[in-house]
Amino acid sequence: MRLPALLVFPQLLLVFSPIVLAFAIPDAPRDPAACAALRHYGKLTESRQCYSKLLASSDAFLRAQADAGLEQFEEANEEFRTAARARPASAAVKTEWGKLYLAHQQAGDAGTLFEEAIQADQNYAPAYLGLARVAASRYDKRAADLANQALKIDPKMFEAHELLAHVALEDNDPVLATKEAQAALGISPEALDALGVLASIDWLNGKEPSPWMDRILQVNSAYGEAYATGAHFFEINRRYEQAISYYRKALALNENLWEARSQLGVNLMRLGLNTEAKQQLERCYTAHYRNAETVNSLRFLDTVGDYETFKTANAQLELHKKEAALLRPYMQPELEQAIATYQRKYKMTLPGPVKLQVFPNHDDFIVRTLGLPGQGGLLGVTFGLGVVMDSPSGRAPGDFNWASTMWHELSHVYVLTATHNLVPRWYTEGLAVHEEGAHSPDWGDRMTPEIVAALRKKQLLPVLDLDRGFVRPQYPSQVLVSYFEAGKICDYIAERWGDSAHLGMIRSYANRKTTAEAIRDNLHEAPETFDKDFAAWLDKRTGETVRHFDDWKKGMKEAYADLQSGKKEDAVKQATAVHGYYPDYVGNESYYELTANAMLAMGDSTGAMNVLESYREAGGTSVELLKKLARLETGAGLQKQAGTTLQKIIYVYPEDMDVHRMFSSLLLNSGDANGAVREAQAALALKPTDVAQAHYDLAKAMLAANRPKEARDEVLASLEAAPNFKQAQKLLLQLSPSE
Amino acid sequence: MRLVIALMLAGMTAQGASYFVTVAGLGGMPEYDKQFADWAAGFDRQFKESGPGAHVITLSGNSATKQRIGEVFSQLAHEVQPGDSFALLLIGHGSFDGVDYKINIPGPDATAGELAAWLNQIPAQRQLVVNMTSCSGASLPALARKDRIVIVATKSGNEKNATVFPRYWLDALHDPAADADKDGNVSALEAFAYTQRKVAAYFESEKLLATEHPMMSDTGNFNAVRDPKPENGQGLLAGSFILMRPEMAENEVTAPAKQKLVAKKDDLEAKIDRLKYQKAAMNPEEYKQQLAALLLELAKIQAEIDE
Known about the structure:
heterodimer, A: mainly alpha, Serine Threonine Protein Phosphatase 5, Tetratricopeptide repeat, Neutral Protease, domain 2, five-stranded mixed beta sheet, 39 helices, 5 strands, disordered N terminus, B: alpha/beta, Rossmann fold, 2 domains, six-stranded mixed beta sheet
């Protein structure tokens, strides 16, 4: 969360010298509040002069606040240190010091100082507000509690109401946001950030110009922070083009809003407008505004040349040069297929080609999406017609299904475009999860133990509140649970009302209808009834697992104990007895893994194969188990099934050379020469140790695909690596009959 | 390089036995004890299957004491002939205190200096040491010597994590993919290249920072390399040190009726080697044409030999 009040502290203003400005200072103020007031009214030069004058104070605390007001962070930090030594028990010193750190985007240090302030004075409201801002900057649910705590101590603290309004709007609750903003205005009619939230509500609803902005400008004609606030709300609602437009408005009023400029650069980068993104970010950097987001984004933009672009009529695929040869043959057709499918299903043509960029380095992906590395959970993100996602090489084998992620994100592209980005988060995520499962039943979100736990505790949210589960989770796994719930809701809608109901919902959102209205208009029932019926529907599908979860856990524990003591048959019996309680579980130490391995150890390869086929169909993604299955199926002559299994592995781990070699051979034997060529080329793209064999395999596939010239080139490449490779020599003779 | 390898191979087949000594140290934990013993047993099996001339000695777990190792080397010092090839493989935990590398074995540990002293007693002119332990990079300065190939699992004594190197070195002995030049033999150089790639791929696929970087030196130089090649002068000796040698290759070379064809084949191989060395300076199309002609000729000769 970006707090508008903090936007006025851009680090780059360090370039101005307070000494130069000091000659024009009017009467010396004794209170930093007077300087802040000048800024509040848009008198930025006078405000700086005021703070500069304060620097002459004999009080370190005043000098610290003056330096902070001049964005001289290092000097301010030193002065605060001196002030804190002089007044170690002062909650005010700790709190102002904390605000400095928060302005410098060091929320952790800021939080420590606010906590120390509270230790010094349990009733110091500004410290609670500071902590609330720290929490809000992390989308932490405690933000509202802390702001309310501040208000309990000081009911006149309008800034706390402003923060609550901001948080409420982030939670997609404009009613509460309005109420809190009005409460702030009731205390201070010039509460600019409250007005900014009210203006943002107008802008989000397409009301431009907003009278609230007029009111802001009457107070402070340079208050670009209000537009930056609006831009922030557009951004978190994935309306990036509008976010860019509003950041530009903010900078037009005050070109020194460096956080807004940095965010403008980051959002331009999100939409792939890299040239201007780089210009804006470099301007920040040159002006010494060098927060992590700016620096990381600039570093990322320097790597753009490492990507290759492949264009078709409907799509533009960008792959890192080091893996383009491997991934393109799989990703390009999958992308085209997804576009064609959605075009039919959503009955719409996109206004331009989809741009998919795939990052082998997860931190690059995160910088490209959020501007900061370290967001481990994200796999793909959609920005308008652009999709960015992790490459499978950026994840551990089996952890990540690139194809289902692609289908998921492509669904967002259609739904966001169709609704002009007005769709709520829960619905677009739910529909995307639904589309994964609609394309391939083993895709989509599995019911993990965390989800079972949430179901047991009845933690699913009513449909009207579901957005909250994504934006401000109340418990650690709530985002995961919310994806599951939203996906199941969309499954339920499709099953009961058909796909046309989804088209109706999309139209409703495009027409700025709320979820309640969209449900009433298209499903013809009240949201409360919908929740009740959905709960009953879901219970039929999950109730057995929820009710018998403990029995399942106990049974599996016993089964593994049997296995460890060598009682394989007992282990299989025990695991099979409880498997029906929770067939969705495909994680580590599953029924499938235990049973298949035990059966193999007992010599029952057919039984193991059957179990592993169920595992594959249930969405299991362990590369080791799936490879085992592919070998069993190949051994049993079940080429089609083996092909299905190998394809599943390629969706979760295309870097496995054995898989491509196995698949190439299988396809060659079954007469699919083009498929065999694709797989042999993939094996070669992985830079095998056995180069000669890889070229030879490709030569054979090329020959079968009636491409003798390329086959000869490949066999020569094989023999170049290994001149005495007899099989290749024979093939060369076969390919050179007249020589 | 191909020419030299071919000639040395031809020489080797007519002479010398192969000696393989494997030492597996203490695991410290049951899973490592088992893992090290399993690897040692795997090497034992593979080397015994490598041919009738193979002499295989494996010291694992409690039998891998310093005294016992010393006894084995003393015995081999009398038995091994200069024309034989000798390989020492070390599995386990190594340590490095900034001065000495040690392999952790029951009782007193053995230092790199002691290992070198034992190896120096062995008269075999061509020796291979594969130190697969953690910290093994620190053993290289003491072990490196002319006519001795030294392969280590880690680039220095600071890579202290238990290694995965032995797993892939063992694979190299039976995976046909390790025989990169498809001549039917797996040389120390091929095994090193195979293992190095597999180790790198392991860390890459597991998304782990690599904690071991295999290195080798076969020139007596302390400065080991990761990528032996003619440009850095490394790999020549390792390319001629055959670890696994199927019988077919020997038959091919020794069959008297085919000697003329074999000579022609050797000549063609030499020409191919020379051409490959000139590749960078040649027009690509011209290179391709000349290479194709030579390879086709070689294939025809081979077909005649095989008739």
